[in-house]
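Hi there,

I know you've been waiting on this one. I reran it after we fixed the sequence typo, so this is the corrected version. Both the input and the resulting structure follow.
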Amino acid sequence: MSMSTTVLLQQINDVDTEARLLAIKRLGMIYDDEKIIDPLLKLLLDNDARIREAVILSLSVQSSSPKIIKPIINALSDEVVDVQLAAIKALSEFRSILATKPLIKILSDPEDEVRAGTVLALGLIEDKNALFPLIDCLEDQNSQVRINALVALSQLGDPRSIDPIIDLIQNETDDIVKQMAILSLGPLGKGDKRIVEPLIQHLSSPNPRFRQYAIVSLGQTKNPEIIKPLLKLLNDEDAYVRRACATALSDVKDPATVKEFIARLDDENAEIRETAARALGKLGDIDAILGLIHALYDTSNAVREEAAKSLGDLEDSAASKSLISVFKKEQDPSVKIAMAIALGRIEGNSPPSTSFVLANPAMRVLSKALSHKELGVRAASAESLAKICINNKKYGKAKNYYRRASDESLTWEFKQPFNLASSLGCEVMDRLSKKHYGGMASIFEAIYDNLATAAKMIGNHTFISKNYWKILEVYDQIFQSKNKGQFVQHFRDLGLKILLLAKKLPEDKQNLLNTSQDRLNEKFQVIDKRGLALSESLVEMENLKPDLFDIGNKILQIEPLELRMDEDQENTINVIEDLSEIPSMGALATMDTTDLLREEENIIQRHVTREVDRKFLLEDIPLTMDTHLFAGKDLSVGLIQFLQGAKRESFIEDDRDLWEKFVRRYYDEEVYRQTRILQFTQESIQFRAKPKIIGYLDDAIYEGCKLIIFPECSMPESYLPKLQQFADRFNIFIIAGVECISDQGHFYNRAYFISPMNENMPYQQKNTRTVMPSSEKNMLEWVENIETTSPPKFSIFESPFGKFIILIGNDIKEYSQFIPFITRERGLDFALFLNNGIENTALSHKYQELATEISKPILYLNTGQFGGTNVYLAKDTQQSPLQSEYSEGIFHWKYAVPEDDMPEFEL
């Protein structure tokens, strides 16, 4: 037991209640130490309800065991609601079926909040014994309980809940509950015809959200019966309904939908033509090619762009000639980029040409585009040229084109390190093709480092190509084998890594490697059965090279690719990774897939029953600039209370035209294009308030703010490059709340820290899910977004004005209890809370107590939708005048930057 733990255990018996609370919270940051459990459990009988609540929350981060779970179950009957809620939360995190029956018993609790929390906990535990009690909760008098019951039933996924939900939809009077019920039928009723008719009835509802959500749920059935009624809604007056309709129809591959969307390419409404062009790419029917080629000449930039993307998706060489012709004349950069990418996809998947450089017209026009004035066009052209070269086995040329694509990519985009990794990978392929084995360890290390950097820039996604480079790394090691034993080990590892690569492919790409895998499996078995000597075995391995390079071509043609995995797929991958760590597997050396599958059950079971590691992760994010820049000075901070509403929504819905409609009108485009530095025009000074986000930036800069902060959900992701330009041009710092960033199939809000002349744009991601994102596209993911990030992750930003941490939305409620510990251990100078939710006096009092406890400022920003922006200081609150709902503006605050950094401690 460490000295600090001993001190904390002594402190939990202090006469001062506040000191005891602080010690209990800090003990909740210590993991896998059984010595703290018994002292905490004793405090569950304490007379002070706050102590009991804190103990439960601190115990909830420990490993699940009956020793902890049973006393917390007893706390469900506590007379204080906050203690009950803490127990419910803890049991939901443990997800132990021991809690199912006790939780069911309190579903009749008189407190609405208790019932609502209990329902969610039962859903997270996913015990089928809770099914019927949860169904009964659909009749609860409280609307939040009914909503939570729908979420919980979706978690259980039992079709027996379909009929009760249909009954609820027919009788429900609360629109929000009804919307959630409509949404929940989709994931519950996949393949179940019972949900079709009740949902179709809502397609004629006067409420556009009922129509939209009914379409989303119908789309998940992929039932041909939905085609006819949905076709009628492609012209709906509501944009979200039209989008939902197009998305649903594009998932039902039927000749009727293809024919209808082809006809819509001639619609008088440009948005409908755009939607049709996008849907035809998803449907994947080559009958759409002629219609999409015709759409390349559309008057709308957006339609031409979507048509080009869809032609690229179809990968049919019949479209190349038209794409090349239009590409030469196209003026719009976004459309030109889409066409360059489409040409790369088509030509990269066409039969290789012996004299492709001279004979391939696509190569010629793309090569000419490398000198285009737009950076994005140059980057896309170089990347497409690389893919065409790989298809033609010109790996040296592909290496150079990928390097060019990396150089032309923006420094804050993931494609810069990704293309550099691909360039290095092509160098490996070039060496292997020339039989230059060995000496490539540093190249592989650089590949993985660059892919890791790229992954961090887009939310830690996984790139499929990483697994391919690991295959080539093992293949290279085979030829360095000093004896047959080493050869056999590398040989087995090669087969496992090929299988792992195939298993990691998304569902719609699962058949991509089947032919290559079959050929490789046959050769593996031949080599193994013949018992060849080392030299003869190496000759046979040379014969495998064309098949391995064929796999590489297929993988690189689809990269970069966002990787999503369902639970079964992830378990299978864990099995293969386990096998690859075993030093010898005898019979598995042949890599017979059937043999592998026989070994999976025990290893899968180990993964399924493995304890969840619930650690609290902290990551330091230093900047590459002087972190003492403002030491001892006053920093002018602008806290923007930004009103969400129709205008903000239009930014997201219509972001393609945002530059054309607003920014381009007020700023000197030529100066911006050449230098990427914002330049005001005279007209921009007259219209500084348009668009609203830029207007507030202008105002804050004019009034001398060096740090400008926007609350949660205040702007679309597409605005980040523009904010970077402001930071560079005016030497300011911006913290921006951005909504609904996709991270491995889930949607989270983020807060980006933008600093001047800094290529890096670090962010804090919200650890709690976004259950109902704001657009139809994200609505499709709502079931996946119920779980929180485990373990929660927080960034410690080391800035020129001190160290700080950001909590977003519900994270404030869930994790603010750890702020004192983090402040002490990491020397925080202030904490920043960004919110888009209800603010009340009780919460304000809580934030004030927290600021007093840590003796550091807490900056709390809420959106204008709810109000409540304040700065909480020790013993004092600087209240913003922007308190009322539906108000907005800038709250100016002077922050006294500390003279020296506080000492750092290791966790």
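Quick highlight: The chain has four domains: 3-174, 178-412, 496-543+550-609, 617-896.

Best,
R. S.
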